[in-house]
Specification:
Strand order of the largest sheet: 1-6
Number of strands: 6
Strand content: 15-25%
Helix content: 25-40%
Shape: globular
Structural class: alpha+beta
Distance between the termini: 70 Å
Order of helices and strands: HHHEHEEEHEHE
Largest sheet: 2 strands, antiparallel
Radius of gyration: 23 Å
Number of domains: 2
């Protein structure tokens, strides 16, 4: 398209048109080079939350550059007590132990509760509904066993050079980790 324009027409191109017509080939070449470097084993890092440093401040929901945060709650099932009164699911003093919205801690209804056997329940996170507010994580960490924690989901994260959540994190729980090991998991603490 650019090769068919005269010089005066090229000067009149605004920035958006230039990027659309003129830089398209350059972007394709640069993007291909980036992908080649990423797949060639070049050292690459991604942002992640250290679950042992996270203080559930709520910044993950509000500071992410995405409309819905790339930070989601995850559940370490091996740590869970499968409690009837899960402090990550229920309000601190629920009216009753049922799934009514007035009893749930999660403002988006992202935690699903299902009966296992008396008195045990399983809690599953619907990550599409989770907005990273950390209310469930705070409840589980404060009164439960800490089996709920936050993680950056890399299929959603744009991996900003300076993560806006990391910049706002009061506990400095965000850090760069190798892309080939992108998750920092939470484990049951051992007595010793």
């Amino acid at each position: 398209m650019l090769q068919h324009m005269n010089e005066e027409q090229k000067k009149k191109l605004n920035r958006r048109e230039f990027l659309r017509f003129g830089a398209g080939a350059g972007i394709v070449v640069a993007g291909g080079a980036y992908l080649a470097a990423a797949h060639s084993g070049a050292s690459r890092t991604v942002w992640q939350i250290d679950p042992d440093k996270c203080i559930q401040c709520g910044n993950c929901k509000t500071k992410c550059v995405l409309a819905t945060s790339a930070v989601k709650c995850v559940h370490a099932f091996a740590m869970c007590g499968y409690c009837e009164l899960c402090t990550g699911f229920f309000e601190p003093q629920p009216n009753s132990l049922n799934e009514g919205a007035e009893n749930q801690l999660c403002p988006t209804g992202a935690i699903k509760r299902s009966f296992v056997e008396d008195p045990y329940y399983e809690y599953i996170i619907d990550e599409e509904l989770c907005d990273g507010c950390a209310k469930c994580v705070k409840g589980c960490s404060s009164f439960g066993n800490g089996s709920l924690f936050l993680q950056v989901r890399h299929n959603l994260c744009v991996n900003c050079n300076q993560c806006s959540i990391a910049a706002a994190c009061p506990s400095r729980a965000f850090r760069r980790v190798p892309a080939d090991h992108p998750y920092l998991l939470k484990h049951r603490e051992t007595e010793g």
